[in-house]
């Protein structure tokens, strides 16, 4: 039986992690996978997470099953964090999932279950796993233009032109903030135009929000999601706690299904529960409980928000340093976009050959599409990267 299996192409981001690990050069710089690292190159456990975990160890009395949709208290705090009261709680069905990827997967399955002929419009480019999961599920995928290779900003006219083809019942996948892999994001005026287009076409938005708090701030990063959720008849939201709580390996996420018709909530909730049961039964609980503890305890919440803000500002600072150094070395403003982008990533706009040269000649690792993880840099490595970029002719 096993001999019938086919080789699967390696996930480019995860393969790069391995290449980096195997590189013996002590000067190597990892700008690959989307994991936050501080100036010492460490991905710390956040203070509030440690405190909440200690409390859990001391006070938790059972590890018995919770429920197919996870702990309702987790859904409540996450809905509040992401949607901030933009839509009434009783119009939202929600289920905890193994990480943001789990939420994305369950959302696609829900779409397929409700409308097998729905096409899913995804930005070109998007997080590669969006594409592979859709292909794996046999769902039809349509790309819409998103990145302007010239300005390294959003090709908004191209995006709107392509989304004009959306038919009623099709799904439009949007990144809530901190677009992965480009770092280029919609402004509020553009979000409003997207909402108008969705209302006109009958397209159903699905928003993947994995980096809330990494862009312009916790509430600022959620403005687009809140606008969409409060404006359209139905939408799906896949939220991740991996990055903003730094609990990557705990696999903590939430899928939300919002419907203006509150009568649909029970039916939708039942389907979310069913999908969880079929795929993994009960969702992981530890990370969700830590998040709930933090968000319901005023002191822990304030400490978490403060630490997250430090993380956000440190990435913003690195963006500014890199853009300034590149301006100094190139004598031009053509890298100004790095300071404009938000979140963990920026797409440099370099060719795969140039990315390979950065790796071979300078031991600098970024994803083949020239996505770099800003958080992989520090004061010392910013000038090294800037010089390597210029030397490579990018
Ligand atoms: C990334 O884009 O690097 C992260 O979301 C990690 C992953 O699972 O790909």
From TrEMBL:
Keywords: Aminotransferase, Pyridoxal phosphate, Transferase
Keyword Ion transport: no
Domain annotation Aminotransferase class I/classII large: ranges: 27-389
CDD domains, alphabetized: AAT_like
Cofactor(s) in the UniProt record: pyridoxal 5'-phosphate
InterPro entries reported in the protein's UniProt record: Aminotransferase_I/II_large, Asp_trans, PyrdxlP-dep_Trfase, PyrdxlP-dep_Trfase_major, PyrdxlP-dep_Trfase_small
PANTHER family cross-referenced by the UniProt entry: ASPARTATE AMINOTRANSFERASE, ASPARTATE AMINOTRANSFERASE, MITOCHONDRIAL
Subunit structure: Homodimer.
Family, as annotated: Belongs to the class-I pyridoxal-phosphate-dependent aminotransferase family.
Protein name: Aromatic amino acid transaminase
Species name: Seohaeicola saemankumensis
């Amino acid at each position: 039986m096993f001999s019938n299996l086919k080789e699967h192409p390696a996930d480019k981001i995860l393969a790069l992690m391995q290449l980096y690990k195997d590189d013996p050069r002590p000067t190597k710089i990892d700008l690959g996978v989307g994991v936050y690292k501080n100036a010492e190159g460490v991905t710390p456990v956040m203070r509030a997470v440690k405190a909440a975990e200690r409390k859990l160890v001391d006070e938790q009395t059972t590890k018995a099953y919770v429920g197919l949709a996870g702990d309702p208290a987790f859904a409540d705090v996450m809905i509040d964090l992401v949607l901030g009261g933009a839509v009434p709680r009783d119009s939202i069905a929600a289920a905890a999932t193994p990480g943001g990827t789990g939420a994305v997967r369950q959302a696609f399955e829900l779409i397929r279950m409700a409308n097998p002929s729905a096409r899913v419009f995804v930005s070109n480019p998007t997080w590669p796993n969006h594409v592979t999961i859709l292909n794996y599920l046999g769902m039809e995928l349509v790309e819409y233009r998103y990145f302007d290779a010239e300005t390294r900003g959003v090709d908004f006219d191209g995006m709107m032109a392509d989304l004009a083809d959306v038919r009623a019942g099709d799904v439009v996948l949007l990144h809530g903030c901190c677009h992965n892999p480009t770092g280029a994001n919609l402004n509020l005026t553009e979000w409003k135009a997207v909402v108008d287009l969705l209302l006109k076409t009958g397209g159903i938005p699905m928003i993947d929000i994995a980096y809330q708090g990494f862009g312009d701030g916790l509430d600022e990063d959620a403005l687009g999601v809140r606008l969409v959720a409060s404006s359209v008849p139905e939408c799906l939201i896949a939220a991740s706690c991996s990055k903003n709580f730094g609990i990557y390996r705990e696999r903590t996420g939430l899928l939300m299904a919002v419907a203006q018709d509150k009568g649909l909530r029970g039916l939708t909730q039942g389907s979310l529960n069913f999908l969880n049961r079929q795929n993994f039964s009960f969702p992981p609980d530890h990370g969700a409980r830590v998040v709930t503890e933090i968000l319901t305890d005023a002191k822990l919440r304030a400490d978490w928000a403060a630490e997250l803000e430090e993380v956000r500002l440190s990435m913003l600072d690195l963006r500014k340093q890199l853009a300034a150094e590149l301006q100094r070395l190139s004598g031009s403003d053509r890298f100004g976009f790095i300071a404009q982008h938000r979140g963990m990533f920026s797409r440099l706009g370099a060719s795969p050959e140039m990315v390979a040269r950065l790796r071979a000649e300078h031991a600098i690792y970024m994803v083949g599409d020239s996505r770099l993880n800003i958080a992989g840099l520090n004061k010392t490595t910013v000038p090294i990267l800037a010089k390597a970029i210029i030397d490579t002719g990018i």
